[in-house]
């Protein structure tokens, strides 16, 4: 049953025939109900579904971070931050041919924004853990030394993310991250994101690959 708001000429919520009315981000939205199809799915559709699954599995553990790291770009588009991250990465961070699709980590993004990102990044395993360095570009295009750095690391060996949120600041230029025993010295993907105080501005993520020792 649908409920009309503001009389018969107003918006409605609920199901009416083949459409559903609901509220999304303060907007009154109507969408059609999905229709069942008995046609065999094409290879293109199967490839699209696999690409969606691959990206979804990679992004889902980062949901809380993504709500902030894509928020400023997503809001003007009337999209959720997660849906924008999903759409962007599905378009640019998939490689291979169906049914062997996989992530192109060099194109994968964990954040998007107009704050200057990390430059001249280097990462390597040391006896003390993972040593990461970057160029201190404070003062360039409103980049401040106090901008906070978050580092996200994906371990191929364990298949999980390690998140070091607000680990240090832009002007530090380097840091050493402790590593748990199950992924020390293994192949990893490292993503660096700067955020201004209060997260009003966010940088595009910067990626660096670290090979296994």
Describe this structure in words.
- This protein is α+β, with helices and mostly antiparallel strands.
- Helix 1 (43-59) crosses helix 4.
- The mean pLDDT is 90.
- It is globular, with a radius of gyration of 21 Å.
- The strands form 4 sheets. A 4-stranded antiparallel β-sheet has the order 1-2-3-4, with no helix packed on it. It has a 4-stranded antiparallel β-sheet with strand order 10-9-12-13, with no helix packed on it. A 3-stranded antiparallel β-sheet has the order 7-8-11, with no helix packed on it.
- The protein is built from 4 helices and 13 strands.
In short:
The chain has 213 residues and is of the alpha+beta class. It is built from four helices and 13 strands. Strands 1-2-3-4 form a four-stranded antiparallel sheet, with no helix packed on it. Strands 10-9-12-13 form a four-stranded antiparallel sheet, with no helix packed on it. A three-stranded antiparallel sheet has the order 7-8-11, with no helix packed on it.
């Amino acid at each position: 049953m649908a409920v009309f708001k503001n009389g018969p000429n107003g918006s409605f919520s609920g199901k009416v025939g083949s459409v559903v009315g609901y509220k999304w981000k303060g907007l009154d939205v109507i969408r059609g109900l999905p229709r069942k199809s008995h046609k065999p799915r094409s290879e293109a559709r199967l490839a699209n579904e696999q690409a969606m699954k691959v990206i979804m599995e990679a992004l889902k553990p980062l949901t809380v971070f993504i709500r902030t790291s894509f928020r400023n770009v997503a809001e003007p588009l009337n999209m959720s931050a997660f849906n924008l991250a999903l759409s962007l990465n599905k378009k640019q961070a998939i490689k291979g041919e169906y049914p062997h699709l996989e992530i192109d980590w060099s194109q994968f993004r964990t954040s998007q924004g107009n704050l200057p990102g990390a430059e001249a990044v280097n990462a390597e395993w040391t006896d003390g853990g993972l040593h990461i360095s970057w160029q201190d570009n404070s003062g360039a295009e409103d980049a401040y030394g106090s901008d906070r750095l978050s580092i996200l690391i994906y371990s191929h060996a364990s298949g999980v993310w390690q998140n070091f949120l607000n680990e240090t600041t832009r002007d530090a230029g380097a840091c050493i991250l402790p590593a748990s025993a199950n992924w020390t010295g293994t192949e990893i993907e490292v993503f660096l994101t700067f955020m201004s105080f209060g997260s009003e501005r966010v940088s595009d993520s910067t990626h660096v690959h670290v090979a296994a020792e």
